[in-house]
Amino acid sequence: MRALCWHGKGDVRVDDVPDPTILDSRDIIIRVTATAICGSDLHLYDGFMPTMESGDILGHEPMGEVVEVGKAVTNLKKGDRVVVPFVLACGSCFFCRRGEHSGCDVSNPNAHMAREAMGQSPAGLLGYSHMLGGFAGGQAQYLRVPYADVGPIKIDSGLSDEQVLFLSDIFPTGYFAAELCGIEPGDTVAIWGCGPVAQMAIRSAWMLGAGRVVAIDRVPERLRMAEAGKAETINFDETKVYDRLMELTGGRGPDRCIDAVGCEAHGAGSADAVMDKVKTAVNLATDRAHVLREAIMCCRKFGTLSIPGVYVGAVDKMPMGAAVNKGLTFRMGQTPVQRYLRPLLEKIEAGAIDPSFVVTHRLPLEQAPEAYKTFRDKQDGCIKVVLRP
Ligand code: NAD
Ligand code: ZN
């Protein structure tokens, strides 16, 4: 089959690779009909994620048609149409039973590697490095889905691929991020980033009772899409984010802050000015957490900071003094997608949201290398790419 393989920093290629086969009785194989590129893939593309190997198949936002079913999978059959969550979870360990599927204790066969880096191992993830399981990803014609008796959700309705595809990751992730905020009716929610995750977080914040949503980015098309979602926007190239957020909230700061950017943001850097302004004793060096620092400085006292943005390894120069003295609550994590699949599919079916609004580019799998560049560099108004294998 054809699959998009990682070969090093900025080097991805569509290669001929062997078709996947059933390796465990809980596996299924799907023929991928649609598969997206995620901001998380950019951390791999940009070479920030260790334990990648040349030839690894990328992709963790796939859906498709079931073509083969392992013996232990009784809830799915050949021909079913499924969306596959990026988190792999056994469904019965301590964490899965609590709905904390991204903490699954069982699904990462390379748990020893993750433990070395993180103390404990989180769940295995599709197409996301050897430390997180070494599973082949879904930017391919076919995909082996482990723990298929727990993860994939069957789509019975006539919804299009693009309407349901983002259940695999970004819709649950945006919703999870908003939910982690603990939004109280009328709260002001500030969201850093207007990428695909942030776009879903904006819509989710409204669903969860926000009174006001402010979204921050500098890419005009992304700011416009946020405005279409009824967010007020700040272009961080033109306006000082801290000053504007204080102005909008009577000097108090937003109640809830969401960092939907993560590490080594492409074009980060607005926070340094804020840090100067408030004259904290932080000696800024170049590092990869501008947004996190800025959100800590902007958030109101006793507010909540939710972090869906992905950070890899250690991040320094965190103004923890400010966080402690302001009484902030930090919440974060890889999304326990399984928990959200059914309720969010119901929202799509009920017409409460159509996540396909985020798609700007539709391309064949063969053009995936160009698609990665276009998405990374935000060329041509690119916000979300769907590949059609
Ligand atoms: P993206 O790269 O398309 O979007 C990031 C956006 O942040 C861009 O529009 C960029 O212009 C903007 N940005 C950069 N610097 C900024 C700054 N200083 N202030 C404000 N905005 C800034 O990515 P995405 O697909 O939307 O994903 C966003 C983040 O969420 C990534 O870190 C990704 O890895 C992470 N993610 C996490 C989960 C999870 O389970 N927690 C799941 C999916 C994605
Ligand atoms: Zn993703």
TrEMBL record:
SMART domains named among the record's database cross-references: PKS_ER
SUPFAM superfamilies per record: GroES-like, NAD(P)-binding Rossmann-fold domains
Matching Gene3D superfamilies: Medium-chain alcohol dehydrogenases, catalytic domain, NAD(P)-binding Rossmann-like Domain
Entry keywords, A to Z: Metal-binding, Oxidoreductase, Zinc
Pfam families for this protein: ADH_N (PF08240), ADH_zinc_N (PF00107)
Domain Enoyl reductase (ER): start-end pairs: 10-387
Residue spans crossing the bilayer: none
Entry protein name: Glutathione-dependent formaldehyde dehydrogenase
The species this protein was found in: Nannocystis bainbridge
